[in-house]
Design goal:
Blueprint: E1 2-10, E2 20-27, E3 30-35, H1 36-44, E4 48-51, E5 58-63, E6 71-76, E7 79-81
Length: about 90
Amino acid sequence: MAIEITHVRFGSVPKNHQSIVSYKWTSPGEAGTTDKPTLVQWVENNGEAYVGTGANRVRVGVVREQGTQPYLRTYADGKWSNNLLSLPEF
């Protein structure tokens, strides 16, 4: 099952990838909200998440940086990108 992340919720300022606390998503016939630790683990266990549709579809991956908790970020054209930060908040 692949999910499209459609909205994000920030837990603090500044609003960056690390401060996202939950994600709203859809999949054919399903929709839900998942907290960051659960979705990070799901993606690490071969779950497929993305942002956008069609030619604008960008895969979501897990970033692990020393001294921070793992977080999600989009990955396109061989580079980490900021698509999640452009999503509407809920």
